[in-house]
Design goal:
mainly alpha; transmembrane helix
Amino acid sequence: MALPIEVITTIGLVGGYAVATTTKKRELGGAVLAGAGAIAGKRWKDALGGPASFALGLIYTGSFGASHPLAKKIGAWPAVLSAAGMTAAASLVAGRVLAKK
């Protein structure tokens, strides 16, 4: 059974940050983030089509980018968890809405 896309994006965002902070190598965290994003992007495209995949990819990368200034206000882990939650929620909603069409 394949992992749900929401789990994959959470692994990318939370796992990427954990790897980067644990190893002190941002590029390793970036590799986790990019790898999970590539897997999620393909799965979104297969399940929901190109436009939805593109939009969800923007949410994934946008939430990652937004977590950086947010971290200055609420802390790093809360910002990462917020980004992961936002991306997972968007993926769930898109999947449910588009599945009804």
